[in-house]
Inverse folding.
C-alpha cells in the first residue's frame, strides 16, 4: 500500500508491503526489510537492516510523535490517493478561477453547489465514490460557481471537468 509520510514537514512517498510484523518499505530507490512489534503502551521494537531500534510512539489528533535514541520526530501518515486528492492543484483558466476535475474514475454521490452559488476555499463541492470510498472534493479558493457539469449517480472518468468556478467580482 502506498502512503505519503510527512516527517517534520518533509514529505516522502512510501510503499509498504507485508503483514504480521514483517514489512518491506520502499522510499524512492531505497528498500528496507523491517521487522516491527508495537506494544500496547506505545513502544515499538524495530529491526531495520540488522540494526535494532526502540521507538516511543504517542498520538494526537493530527500526528504521531516518535522518539528514537533521544531524537524526536513529528510524523503524519496519509494514504497516497487521499493525499493526491487533498493537495492537487485544481486551478485552471483565468487567474482566480478554478476548474475542478475528477482526480479518479468513480461515481458522483453528492453535488453540494449549484450554478451561481458563492463558495469559499475549503467548501465541499462534490462527493465522488471510488473503490468503495467517498472523497469530498473542495474548493481551492473563493469564487462563484459558473458551471456544474455533473449530477448525483453520474459516472466520471479521470480528468473529467466537474465544476467551474470563477473569481468573485
Amino acid at each position: 500500500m502506498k502512503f505519503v509520510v510527512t516527517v517534520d514537514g518533509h514529505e516522502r512517498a512510501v510503499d509498504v508491503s507485508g503483514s504480521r510484523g514483517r514489512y518491506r518499505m520502499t522510499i524512492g530507490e531505497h528498500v528496507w526489510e523491517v521487522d516491527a512489534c508495537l506494544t500496547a503502551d506505545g513502544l515499538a521494537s524495530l529491526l531495520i537492516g540488522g540494526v535494532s531500534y526502540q521507538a516511543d510512539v504517542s498520538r494526537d489528533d493530527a500526528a504521531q510523535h516518535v522518539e528514537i535514541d533521544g531524537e524526536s520526530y513529528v510524523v503524519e501518515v496519509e494514504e497516497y490517493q487521499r493525499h493526491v486528492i487533498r493537495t492537487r492543484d485544481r486551478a485552471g483558466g483565468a487567474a482566480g478561477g478554478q476548474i475542478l476535475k475528477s482526480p479518479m474514475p468513480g461515481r458522483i454521490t453528492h453535488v453540494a453547489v449549484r450554478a451561481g452559488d458563492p463558495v469559499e476555499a475549503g467548501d465541499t463541492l462534490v462527493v465522488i465514490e471510488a473503490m468503495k470510498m467517498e472523497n469530498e472534493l473542495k474548493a481551492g479558493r473563493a469564487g462563484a460557481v459558473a458551471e456544474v457539469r455533473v449530477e448525483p449517480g453520474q459516472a466520471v472518468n479521470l480528468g473529467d471537468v466537474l465544476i467551474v468556478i470563477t473569481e468573485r467580482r
